[in-house]
Each structure stands twice: as structure tokens, then as C-alpha cells.
Design brief:
Number of helices: 4
CATH architecture: Beta Barrel
Strand order of the largest sheet: 1-2-3-6-7-8-9-10
Shape: elongated
Structural class: mainly beta
Radius of gyration: 23 Å
Number of domains: 1
Mean pLDDT: 86
Largest sheet: 8 strands, antiparallel, barrel
Length: 253
């Protein structure tokens, strides 16, 4: 996994260097398409805080910035964490001791994690502060999309039939639904060297979700409750802009 991420990083960097060498960023608002890679540290609120603690998000997106400093894009994020609060769903098979006995009669170790993803369409505007870098400034975005999360249950001993892939579905609380987001932060375009292009800010995510499993084994019921899952995230992103090549005109007298 790490090798894939490193290889992707250098590939994107090479593409960035090639595209940027074909253009000249002047003292004017320019349009360009862009790839971006982002990381977020997420604080859960509302119903999400009952199930999970602080989590991480890592993702990528593609967008367009117009000559009017309007930004439109699509992005996806993978959510992950080891901070799981709701861990009592296995008590019907482990008892109060929390011990899981494998088919061979030995103890099987298990861990919990948060797993999930989000996908959203975004649109907004960059409000420049002053010249000469009028392609940078305050960035405000609104988004709408889809959020999904569940409790991952990893069993290190494969001889635990009560936690097979199919049986885990009765405990993992698979949840998803419609999501709204708001982002405010600073967007920076390096008009001189064209390599340090980034953004940072705060994003709020509100999702209206439900448990999608047909039956919770530990509760002996179907969970039909509507949840309000909220994240407040500190978000950082590295941007790779792709400028259109510009033709320089020369006049001779």
C-alpha cells in the first residue's frame, strides 16, 4: 500500500512539473483544472460521537477553477480510525470477560476500527485579498454527497466461525446516507515557482444516515433510527494545477 502511494505521488509530481513548464502565470485571474490530495483530522459530533472518537480522512479529487475564481469539483475520502467507542456488541458471544474462544478451544484476538468513505460534489468561490497573487485567497465551498461508515471487526484467528465474514454483518453497524458539507479556508497558488500549491481550512460535514443491516444480532432487532452524523474537520490539501499552454505574441517594428 505504501509503495502504491509513493509511486502515485511521484507520478502526480511529474505530471505537475510537465504541465506547469508549459505555461506562464501572469498577474491576472487564470483558469485551470487541478488534481488535489488531501488529509483531514475529524472530530465527531452528534450521533457520530457516540460511536467513534477522532478519526482520519485521506482522499483525492479533481476540479476546475474558472477565470472568475469559481471552483467546481468532485472528491472522495477514505475514513479510518482505531477510536471506536461502541464496542459492546460482541458481549452475546464473548460474555462480560470479552474473551473470544476459537473453534480449536484457544483464545482468538480481535480488534475494532472505524471504516468508511465519503463522496461529494463541491462548488464555491475563491475571494482574493490583494494583488499580485489574485488567484489565491479565501476559499468558500458548499458540497453534497454520500457518507458511509461501519465498525470493522478484525479477527486474527480464522477459526472463529461466529465472526465469519457473513456473521460480522450482524455486528458492524453499516450506516450510510445523504451528506452536506461546508468548507472555509485559504487557497494558495504559487505564481512564481508554481510548485507550492495548496489549501487549508475547516470543513463541517452533516450526514442524515440509517443502519442498512437487516438485523443486529446483539440487539435482536432491526435498527430503523435516523441518525445525524456530524464531523468537524481540519483539512489540508496539496494541489496540482494543469494550466493551458499560452502562446506569446511578438511584434516587430
Amino acid at each position: 500500500m505504501n509503495r502504491i502511494l509513493v509511486s502515485s505521488f511521484f507520478l502526480l509530481f511529474s505530471l505537475s512539473a510537465f504541465s506547469q513548464s508549459q505555461s506562464v502565470l501572469k498577474d491576472s485571474v487564470v483558469s485551470f483544472s487541478m488534481l488535489h490530495i488531501h488529509y483531514g483530522l475529524n472530530l465527531p459530533l452528534a450521533d457520530m460521537s457516540d460511536r467513534f472518537g477522532l478519526s482520519n480522512s485521506l482522499g483525492a479529487g479533481f476540479g476546475v477553477k474558472t477565470q472568475k475564481n469559481v471552483v467546481i469539483g468532485l472528491e472522495g475520502s477514505y475514513l479510518f480510525s482505531r477510536n471506536v467507542k461502541e464496542t459492546d456488541m460482541l458481549e452475546n458471544i464473548t460474555g462480560e470477560t470479552g474473551l473470544l474462544i476459537s473453534a480449536s478451544g484457544l483464545l482468538a484476538t480481535y480488534t475494532f476500527s472505524q471504516k468508511g468513505f465519503s463522496l461529494q460534489l463541491q462548488g464555491g468561490k475563491i475571494i482574493p485579498f490583494k494583488k499580485p497573487n489574485i488567484n489565491s485567497g479565501l476559499m468558500v465551498l458548499l458540497g453534497a454527497g454520500y457518507l458511509q461508515h461501519k465498525i470493522g471487526i478484525e479477527v486474527n484467528d480464522n477459526e472463529a466461525p461466529m465472526l465469519s465474514k457473513e456473521y460480522k454483518k450482524g455486528y458492524d453497524r453499516l450506516t450510510n446516507g445523504f451528506m452536506l458539507t461546508q468548507f472555509i479556508g485559504y487557497f494558495f497558488v504559487d505564481s512564481k515557482h508554481k510548485r507550492i500549491n495548496c489549501y487549508a481550512g475547516v470543513e463541517i460535514m452533516e450526514a442524515f444516515t440509517k443502519n442498512r443491516r437487516s438485523w443486529n444480532y446483539d440487539e435482536q432487532r432491526k435498527d430503523d433510527n435516523v441518525r445525524k452524523d456530524i464531523f468537524v474537520s481540519i483539512k489540508f490539501g496539496w494541489v496540482i494545477p494543469f494550466y493551458r499552454s499560452q502562446t506569446e505574441k511578438f511584434y516587430y517594428y
